[in-house]
Amino acid sequence: MSDATRDDPTLSPEYLTRLDAYWRAANYLAVGQIYLMDNPLLEQPLQLSHVKPRLLGHWGTTPGLNFIYAHLNRAIRKYDLDMVYVAGPGHGGPALVANVYLEGTYSEYYPNISEDKDGMRKLFKQFSFPGGIPSHVAPETPGSIHEGGELGYALSHATGAVLDNPELIVACVIGDGEAETGPLATSWHSNKFVNPVRDGAVLPILHLNGYKIAGPTVLSRIPQEELKQLMQGYGYEPFFLEEADTVAATHLAMAKLVDRMIERIREIQTDARKNGFHQRPRWPMLVMRTPKGWTGPEEVDGVPVENSWRSHQVPLAQLAEKPEHLKLLEQWMRSYKPEELFTAEGKLHPKLRELAPVGKRRMGDNPHANGGLLLRELRLPDFREYAIELPSPGSRIGEATRVQGKFLRDVMKMNMDSKNFRLFAPDEFTSNRWDEVLQVTSRMLAAEILPTDTGVAMDGRIMEVLSEHQCQGWLEGYLLTGRHGFFSCYEAFVHIVDSMFNQHAKWLKTCNDIPWRRPIASLNYLLTSHVWRQDHNGFSHQDPGFIDHVVNKKPEVVRVYLPPDANTLLSVTDHCLRSRNYVNVVVAGKQPAYQWLSMDAAIKHCSAGAGIWDWASNDQESSPDIVMACAGDVPTLESLAAVSLLREWLPSLKIRFVNVVDLMTLQPASEHPHGMSDKEFDAMFTTDKPILFAFHGYPWLIHRLTYRRKGHDNLHVRGYKEEGTTTTPFDMTVLNDLDRFHLAEAAIDLVPSLGAQAGHLRQRLRDKLIEHREYICRHGEDMPEVRNWQWKVK
Amino acid sequence: MSDATRDDPTLSPEYLTRLDAYWRAANYLAVGQIYLMDNPLLEQPLQLSHVKPRLLGHWGTTPGLNFIYAHLNRAIRKYDLDMVYVAGPGHGGPALVANVYLEGTYSEYYPNISEDKDGMRKLFKQFSFPGGIPSHVAPETPGSIHEGGELGYALSHATGAVLDNPELIVACVIGDGEAETGPLATSWHSNKFVNPVRDGAVLPILHLNGYKIAGPTVLSRIPQEELKQLMQGYGYEPFFLEEADTVAATHLAMAKLVDRMIERIREIQTDARKNGFHQRPRWPMLVMRTPKGWTGPEEVDGVPVENSWRSHQVPLAQLAEKPEHLKLLEQWMRSYKPEELFTAEGKLHPKLRELAPVGKRRMGDNPHANGGLLLRELRLPDFREYAIELPSPGSRIGEATRVQGKFLRDVMKMNMDSKNFRLFAPDEFTSNRWDEVLQVTSRMLAAEILPTDTGVAMDGRIMEVLSEHQCQGWLEGYLLTGRHGFFSCYEAFVHIVDSMFNQHAKWLKTCNDIPWRRPIASLNYLLTSHVWRQDHNGFSHQDPGFIDHVVNKKPEVVRVYLPPDANTLLSVTDHCLRSRNYVNVVVAGKQPAYQWLSMDAAIKHCSAGAGIWDWASNDQESSPDIVMACAGDVPTLESLAAVSLLREWLPSLKIRFVNVVDLMTLQPASEHPHGMSDKEFDAMFTTDKPILFAFHGYPWLIHRLTYRRKGHDNLHVRGYKEEGTTTTPFDMTVLNDLDRFHLAEAAIDLVPSLGAQAGHLRQRLRDKLIEHREYICRHGEDMPEVRNWQWKVK
Asked: Is the pLDDT of residue B278 over 60?
């Protein structure tokens, strides 16, 4: 025993014996949650009536999670750490609930689950029980920012949480199952995006328990040396824990390793904070190889269970049919010696409770894990000041996202001191025209920076990595711990994080029902480089379907905006940055395009969410013959161009022009909080006139949102119908019948009263389309008539 | 110079000088494609009129891709290799087109693009030009199985391609941008799933050109030693190529490295095939560090372009405004010395053409890259033989996917010799009840296998890894090279590959328009562990939205099936395995459930896609009061249970019962090839009676598919509305108003003629719901009345 060890009371056999008891207590409570609905302290011999009729839960990962939790508690107390626990194997829900209960947090949040026998009985019963709590670590679990149902995002979440939190350490347990996923595999590289001066530290713990649901894991079946190379290749200094001959020895080894790693983190941070950050450190990480289902039944029905995939969920089942299983369960639970762990009243023994940190140092009560508690409003400049001055509609050209970028530049600047705002993008930050933000900050990189690099710095606040998964995961972690952000993405490729969006939306929905979870900043997406302007990259880059995906989630948590120009985009952006607990999806163009609304008009339009554009309509004196509606910048352009054709060629045709910014206004008010009343909808769209709707996305989304509206039978939607290739911008609309000529033709067809005039006009429009096709195939760009078109209607 | 080098004519300076010329020819053709529409051989001084008005394309990665292609050509000739080229940076489209043209393949597939001056002019002009070809490597490119627009899947595709193709080598270029994505990061581990005895080899080439669109890449900014550790940690033997002092030296170094790697692959394979496969080999891989935009303009407008992100797309732009750029372009193109490369007629010099492989050895003409050419039908057992014998509807219980598993077991068995069928699953193979396949094959693992493992073998044909991305990518690669497969996935988590599905569906859609692309086997999904039976895992596992996502793609390539029981699932499965060029999505339950249709009835029902179940209806003698429709196994159960309640309590109510298996039948025939005619639809659903549709997924999908139908205004859909947690199976339906009691109540409400009876029944149903809630919160499982319910209507 070294001097350091001898002098450290938390490494003494006595302390570690208590720590082992603490671990046993957590294991006991975990098994109790999975199995029992009564007799929590096993005061009576275990009977079938004490056991839940349906056994749900995941034992396999649980003892490992408990082991880590107990040792982290020790380190928190020893070093006074500010620490959050991310359980990648969040399906091991009983572990986190058990520990949060042991440290006293759980009963503070849920007084009904008290620290006594009755509380323990309820704790057991509620787990995976109707009316109780979910089987996974969930928003309901104090201390959690990570669900762990869908695997892959633990390390990204942990990284997002430590950004701009220099004192925070996030211990992040990664299961060897999860380690096989793509998002997790790339998230090891998060260490190239953490700055030890201003950010906290992630302590990854790869829990190699060897098995998934039904088979071995990949990383447990490669040589230790190879695994070491892998972790070194990822840029870490790996430490290894293996089960020792005795439990005491395993505890001692773990305690020492945890100390070494914490001290290494402190060294790295102290050095960087004192001497500046010059070189990316090799952060420590732990590979912990312990058996799946550790301390559980070794064998059941003659086959191995501990250290096998068979312990993944419930090691003992069919208790009603197999009385010997009930016996095994009782033996198993008693093997933890509950009588040594809990008082007769069912409270954790004071000598064990001493091992838990106190107050906000308890991982279940760490305020970072309830980010809304820490959330500070952003300081926001007046977005009106970034407006494009507009003498009249269509009189100027601007790049919407570039204008938004100016606004975001100043948001960044004004919150630089608060250190609570970051931007995230997969290699598309400049491409998406947010360049001006680079005037006040840089792309963040903690790896080598060359003298020739521009806009790259160790203290940048732009998080750019070619992984939508990482951007999303980091941003989620950042938001969940009480900060703000915006994610800019190519529209087609945001589908890469469809499932991550799902999980975040579900998390938010659940949080709305948990009073102690304080609201967090919304997750804001800018989707640009959108379908209509992927004429250069072609078919693979054309997909507007993310919004279809988004509107499947609870209306309470999702918002979709399609601002048609820069000023509306500014208004929407300001709104998104102020909102809480939503996912805001903003779809906007980055290409030079006509501007339609003055700032005042834009604010009014965005506040309503949808409205009639009088200046484009000529039905003021009468009722319209047709409603031309649109949503999205390119459809708005084509719709207006069609209107100007029609008004030139058919001045008697009465057109009402409607633009929709907030897509959710189309839904009935009963379906979405933003939904227009039927009265408003009918007044805007009429109940009996044809509506020709030019839509940014797949056309049926508009039908889906409006099918209960009176005018729905008169509604005709044009949108993207999966036609595209590398071609001209205007041709993209032609291929999908969304261009001005097709729209004008459709409008004519929808107004039967036009009679004889119609045939002639239709022919002119078709000639235009032929002319277009011939022109682009000859010249490779759009006709001057299209390129130079301007809104000139008075 | 070593003896080996001296003796090898393909390592001679003369040969490598020619190889360099070949490379220059490819570079010249690539630049030409990006810029020119005329004057292809630069016979005249370059003028603006020769240049395309819109410059679209990606230069940065292109010279590297060309360099690799030229060296692989050399190796193919030297070793007589059967080789396919996967270009991860597929946006470098000009490279692949240039090389396929140089080797003569392109003109064979597209005779209009002939091997002469006029052909070269057309080759240049068509690139990224309306009516021409896309800017990326695409289905239009001979030799390609990979688009490369959405990054991340190159190595998974390459791996899928070599499975069961022992003689095939797939050279897989991975950009350092792509290397940052999650799917790519985990796909390095594909080497644990390749068996050198029966599979071919993947040769990964990590192309470190240092930059993404606008900034440095992560892997180019870590020390070489760390990168080496990373690749070793992934299990490879990495080789490194850096640009040498002279081009000649770089060529020599590359040629030698390629030889070493090919020889290493052969050694590994020869050893394993002779001595058996005992230990996972360290396959070779190459890290090639060459500048982005290599050989392009070094500096433009005073800033570096070569070896910088600025060469990502078009290094010289604004040619009209900046005449000096036009000069630079001409200099650049002339730097390749086209006069040395092409004859006056515009054909590649015969001395260079000699360097290309011939016939099917040309990578552009490798039949594996047009998998339909090699596709052999599966031998299929008669699926009827696996039927559950059914005396009457609801008289037996079965697990649908387990029955499907028996069928798949025998499909596997019958095609074992053909080696063209594999199953893919992310850690859920057994969970999804395909266990019986394990009787005839195993999970594949080329890493360590322990004596305690069961169902794991080096020659297994079940590909199980906890990565939906890998499963999807491998399967796509396997299918694209002419084989068959099935992917079983948890329904909620298939969203992880939403974007991969997009790309595959787009690929198939495009292939339908390319006559020389032969049809390939469909991509088949079994989605199980579905939303209604994720009562145990809870909210994070509940999402039926993948089918919404799928139906956004072209109707020609997507099919969605919701078989309600085992026999219908068998019929659908057989159909899917016989189909070509589709994505088939099959949603089916794995839990014990009632069986409804005999095999004969199932076949009839599936052939129609939707139908009236007479045995559940009582409107035979008259018109119905209500149509009870359903799709999906649990909704079918609840709908039938509601019918049986109603028929007991309200015998006078005339109910028609409709079940839908093929969701696409609901769409108008004009929208989808499977769509029912309006006449059929109206006859089935009526045009004037209320329709209560119990649906597996989000309810609005049914509205979206049917909004053009006459009866749509009478349609009321119940489905998943994002309500759920860990609870009982029946409670999942209650939370979403899809249970029998809610359905019966809704039916009553929809038939106003019921009058006074309605109130009483409604109360009874509400009492049932209260009883349910109380029961589950007390007992933790569903009421016996629900659990033991049986169809007893005569």
From this structure: yes
List the domains of chain B with CATH numbers: 15-367 (3.40.50.970), 386-593 (3.40.50.970), 610-787 (3.40.50.920)
Chain B residue with CA closest to A537: the answer is B135
Q: What letters, b where the CB count within 10 A reaches 16 and e where it falls short, cover B364-384?
A: bbbebbbbbebbeebeebebe
pLDDT digits (tens, 9 = 90+) for B470-504: 999 999 999 999 999 999 999 999 999 999 999 99
Q: Tell me which chain B residue has its CA closest to the CA of residue A772.
A: B130
Per-position DSSP letters for A109-168, written without gaps between them = H-TTS-SSHHHHHHHHHHBTSTTSB-SS--TTSTT-----SS-S-HHHHHHHHHTT-TTE
Chain A residue nearest residue B307, CA to CA: A452
DSSP state of A42: -
Q: Which residues pair with A205 in a beta bridge?
A: A173, A286
**What residue type is assigned to position B246 of the chain?**
T
Residues in chain A with pLDDT values less than 50: 1
* DSSP at B377: P
What strand order describes the sheet that includes A558-561? A456-457, A443-444, A462-464, A421-425, A484-490, A523-528, A583-587, A558-561
pLDDT in tens, A265-317: 999 999 999 999 988 999 999 999 999 999 999 999 999 999 988 999 999 99
CA distance A200 to A161: 8
| A687 near B CB under 8 A | no
**DSSP classification of residue B308:** S
d(CA B708, CA A583): 32
Structure tokens at B231: 């690749």
Reference B169, options B4, B283, B5, B287; nearest CA is B283
Choose from B282, B494, B726 for mutation: most chain A CBs within 10 A.
Answer: B726
Cα(B144)–Cα(B363) distance, integer angstroms = 9
A738 to chain B nearest CA, in Å? 17
Cα dihedral sign for A429, A433, A434, A436?
A: positive
User: Contact, B176 vs B208, CB < 8 A?
Assistant: yes
DSSP secondary structure of A355-423: TS--GGGSGGG-GGGGGGGT--PPP---GGGGPPP-SSTTS-EEEHHHHHHHHHHHHHHHTTTTT-EEE
Q: How far is B385 from chain A (nearest CA, A)?
A: 29
Q: Range with the lowest mean pLDDT among B426-430, B717-721, B743-747?
A: B426-430
Contact assignment for A231 to B233 by CB distance below 8 Å? yes
The tokens describing B748, both together, are 């009553």
- ipTM of the prediction: 0.97
Q: Which residues of B touch A731 (CB under 8 A)?
A: 130
Say yes or no: B448 contacts chain A, CB-CB below 8 A.
yes
Are A466 and B177 inside 8 Å of each other by CB?
yes
Q: Is B282 on the interface with A (CB under 8 A)?
A: no
- Cβ contact, residue pair B218, A447, below 8 Å: yes
Token duo for residue B468:
């939906």
Two tokens at A197? Answer: 């001066």
> What is the rounded distance in angstroms from the CA atom of residue A256 to the CA atom of residue A10?
10
- Dihedral angle sign, alpha carbons of residues A661, A664, A667, A673: negative
Shortest distance between the Cα of B135 and any Cα of chain A, in A, equals 6
For residues A283 and A271, what is the distance between their CA atoms, to the nearest angstrom? Answer: 13
Mutation target vs A (from B157, B289, B292, B466; most A CBs, 10 A cutoff): B466
Give the pLDDT score at A148. 85
Picking from B273, B72, B96, B89, the residue whose alpha carbon sits closest to that of residue B176 is: B89
Chain B closest CA to A148's CA: distance in Å?
9
For residue A3, the model assigns a pLDDT of 56
Can you read off the two tokens belonging to residue A187?
């998230």
